[in-house]
Amino acid sequence: MKRGFLLIATAVLVTGCSGGGGGAAEPRKSTAGSPAKVTLELWHLSTTEPMKTIMVQRAKEFEAAHPNVTIKATVLENEAYKSKITTLTQSGKAPDVFASWGGGVLQQQIDAGLVKDISADVAPVLGTFTKASLTAYQFDGKTYGLPTDIGMVGFWYNKKLFAKAGIQQPPATWAELLDDVRKLKAAGTTPIALAGKEKWPGHYYWAYLAMRIGGVPAMHQAAVDKNFNTPDFVAAGQQLKALADLQPFQKGFLGAGYSTPDGQSASVSNGKAAMELMGQWAPAVQKSSGKGLGDDLGFFPFPAVDGGKGTVTEAFGGGGGLAVGADAPPEAVEFVKFFTAMANHSRAVEAGGVLPVLQGEESSVKDPNLKIVAESLAGATGFQLYLDQAYPPAVGAEVNDSVAQLIGGTKTPQQVVEAITEVAKSE
Fold first, then answer.
1. Which of 6, 58, 86, 246 is most enclosed, with most CB atoms within 10 A?
2. Gap between the Cα atoms of 19 and 41, Å rounded
3. What is the band of 353 on the pLDDT scale with cuts at 50, 70, 90?
4. Cβ–Cβ < 8 Å for 203, 399
């Protein structure tokens, strides 16, 4: 959302034009000599502006350039998408073109023979992408998708509510953040909005704390060892419990959605909560779900934890991409290249729908807060993909579930790491 990165969260897809350098596939011919009619099934997550409209526009442009192609789009929110794509892939099928966050989920789909190896088709354009954005879609030297967005999770906050509480600058450490939560509560302001019902937003806190305490290498090693029962991961849970004990979230957060009119995003957008921990799509969703904060909206990276091995220059996040079903026609690959070519992708970046995945796109970022995100990514010394995407689906689901129970007060930090480890070792 995801996330994610709605995923993430929500606006995680982008588009491109056919100037990507890969050339067009030779159209299939019918017996009459004209290109055969093709219907492409496209599943994506762009439910909010500006990407909602951009997606429709790009589909029409592709159809205009390929008269034999009709695009049939299925558009879903993050959680509904995860559920529906899982059901479909378990039946042994995949859409022609579909949204992917890469990582462990894509790996399982590849292992099941559901995703096309597009290495040869996209080889001429791979050099135009940034290395960080491609990582989640490449396995064993092969490419199984192209990125359409990349970003990081951080705190989006209301400058006016911070000032009202006497907070002059964003917190640089976790201890300062906890202190700021107390100041906001004392000022009569709900400190943090959280979509407790959807679970994935809550896992951001535990994951980031584990990164700040143990460092990115610890996150990678846990995946290799299939062991989260270590002091650093337990400490992450203890620090998250310290936050939850302050009761920082909005009333009814356990039943709240993310992008609903009364959910996490709207609570911040309408000035009812001071901040949310969310990905780079947050400003767009806030505008869609509420009034919007305009110049009062600010961004700061997840704070450092005193004594931790990690640093604030290590980013947690991900983005969106497009993968191609194993049985999809050649036009599906052309559509993915069309989506991600510079001429159109940079327009989506300029519109604020996504962040750069192509080299040289940085100047297209206009929003000042998104510029901060882009600059933070450019200077990142480490990067960790969302845990519910980096790890196998069952492990990611357990992370979300266990962390939600920790926040809700029904699991201890030790029980969280034991539950995740148990599932990881069973995979």
1. 6
2. 23
3. confident
4. yes
Distance CA 381, CA 314 (A): 5
Three-state secondary structure of the chain: CCCEEEEEECCCCCCCCCCCCCCCCCCCECCCCCECCEEEEEEECCCCCCHHHHHHHHHHHHHHHCCCEEEEEEECCHHHHHHHHHHHHHCCCCCCEEEECCHHHHHHHHHCCCECCCHHHHHHHHHHECHHHHHHHEECCEECEEEEEEEECEEEEEHHHHHHCCCCCCCCEHHHHHHHHHHHHHCCCEEECCCCCCCHHHHHHHHHHHHHHHCHHHHHHHHHHCCCCCHHHHHHHHHHHHHHCCCCECCCHHHCCCCCCCCHHHHHHCCCEEEEEECCCHHHHHHHHCCCCHHHEEEECCCECCCCCCCCCEEEEEEEEEEEECCCCHHHHHHHHHHHCHHHHHHHHHCCCCCCCECCCHHHCCCHHHHHHHHHHHCCCEEEECHHHHCCHHHHHHHHHHHHHHHHCCCCHHHHHHHHHHHHHHC
Question: What is the residue-averaged pLDDT of the chain?
Answer: 90
Whether pTM > 0.85 for this model: the answer is: no
**pLDDT of the residue at 96:** 98
pLDDT, position 281: 86
